[in-house]
Amino acid sequence: MERIRVQAAQPYDVCIGSGILEEFPEFLRVRAGAASPAVGSSGAYTPALMIVTDGNVAAHYLKGLVRATEAAGFRVHTALFPPGESLKSERPLFSLLGCMVRKGLARDSIVIALGGGVIGDFAGFAASVYMRGCGFVQVPTSLLAQVDSSVGGKVGINLREGKNLVGSFYSPLTVVCDTDTLKTLPEREMVSGLAEVVKYGLIRDASLFGALEGAFRGSPVGRDGRLSPQVVKERLLEDGTLLGSLVTGSVRIKSEVVGADEREAGLRMTLNFGHTFGHALEQLTGYRRYLHGEAVLLGMKMAVELSAASGMLQAAERERALGFLDIFRVPSVKGIDAAAMLAQMGRDKKKKAGSLRFVLLRGIGAAEIAPGVDPSAVIESVEAVRDRRAPPAAHR
Ligand code: NAD
Ligand code: GLY
Fold first, then answer.
1. 368 pLDDT more than 60
2. 3-state secondary structure of 208
3. Which residues are catalytic?
4. Nearest CA owner, ligand 2 atom 2
5. Considering every ligand atom, which ligand is closest to the CA of 264?
6. Percentage of residues in the chain with pLDDT exceeding 90?
7. Which end of the chain has fewer CB atoms at under 10 Å, N or C?
8. What are phi and psi of 314, to 5 degrees?
């Protein structure tokens, strides 16, 4: 098992390993117990738990977790919601908070978010406002949640007016990341999470990027020259150590960034590489065509094009980055209007002082925030990705 300390204002550990969910009550006692002021020194630590999850995840992991925590002496309640982004909204939030009151949960109770990023953001936000903040533990079960959303303390819900517009920075007591749960993750979700791993390589760790290239070199591609989500998932699971090392490497990078800039004053913004384009793609397609990471993957291609067009990224590095990003089969950008993308990005909440700011690459493993990017170069970058016929052959 790996344990990575996140040096946030309220520090916590991210514990990563295969099969560690079986020891969950121990993590609660040792990690959360040690960190929580609500816990006495007598060792009699049995606060009430509220496990929040969705139907897909519950089918695999809820019973086992309830059984284990009850056997360890915890009073356990569960709240089961339908899967999907629509959970991150007002009605389900108030429904969960009301349920917590009726079950008699107090400030020293602990909300356990068992699921992907939706459950983590939703349950974490509920914990952050319940009685002005109760205990919170993340048990991420999607790759995206393990490498990104469960680390860093951002929790929140959406408004009709936009995504993640209501939220808090709220540290979990601990994060328990069992990579075995990824065996049941749908294949496209695996690719979606992998896109965030690729992002870490591109923005901060050339050796991680090299390891990813190596991991997929020689994997069987389809007629379109790309890897199907099924092949990607099989490849990630076939090697017992690959997935664990990718999750650990990603969490290390995210925890460094969060430790240096928890409130996103500068460095943390680089984690949004590809996201400005990606969010616009998601919004223009009504959140139906792409999973979040798929849109980010396409957004990263656009950001690579923009980095090259802005003179920051050399041609060979552009080829290498695109050569790898292009091997993944994700829904196409066909029919996307580049001017509409630009308009959508203008509404992005990260826009500052009237000019668009993009995270661009100076090289593989080095990102910078570039203010005042030329709008026509942005349009051309979208068009370059949209209109490219064949994937560059660089990777094969
Ligand atoms: P998700 O939570 O919707 O999970 C994806 C799907 O996989 C769901 O249908 C879920 O039920 C299912 N699932 C999850 N784990 C499973 C498992 N082990 N076995 C079988 N099915 C499983 O989506 P996601 O991609 O995990 O997260 C996306 C959300 O995360 C978005 O709301 C996004 O805004 C948020 N996010 C937050 C942060 C942050 O820092 N807080 C960062 C990135 C993304
Ligand atoms: N996912 C971006 C961040 O946590 O800042």
1. yes
2. helix
3. 132, 154, 196, 254, 264, 268, 272, 275, 279, 292
4. 271
5. 2
6. 86
7. C
8. -70, 155
Task: Give exposure, 36-63, as e/b (b: 16+ Cβ within 10 Å).
Answer: bebbeeeeebebbbbbbbbebbbeebbe
Measured between alpha carbons, how far is 309 from 134 in angstroms, rounded to an integer? 48
Phi, psi of 49 (to 5 degrees): -115, 145
> pLDDT, tens digit, for every residue of 44-65?
557 899 999 999 999 999 999 9
Q: Is 257 in the pocket of ligand 2 (CB under 6 A)?
A: no
Residue of minimum CA distance from atom 3 in ligand 2? 271
Instruction: Specify the pairing of strand 154-159 against strand 162-169.
Output: antiparallel
CA of 186 to the centre of ligand 1 (A): 11
**Res 44: pLDDT:** 56
Q: How is residue 173 annotated by DSSP?
A: S
Per-residue CA distances from 364 to 98, 154, 298, 326, 359 (Å): 48, 27, 17, 16, 13
269 Cα nearest atom in ligand 2: 5
CA distance 189 to 146: 12
The model's pLDDT over 74-86, given as tens digits with 9 standing for 90+, comes to 999 999 999 999 9
Q: Whose CA is nearest to atom 4 of ligand 2?
A: 152
**pLDDT score for 395:** 54
What is the CA(166)–ligand 1 centre distance, in A?
18
In the block, tokens 């075995």 appear at: 180
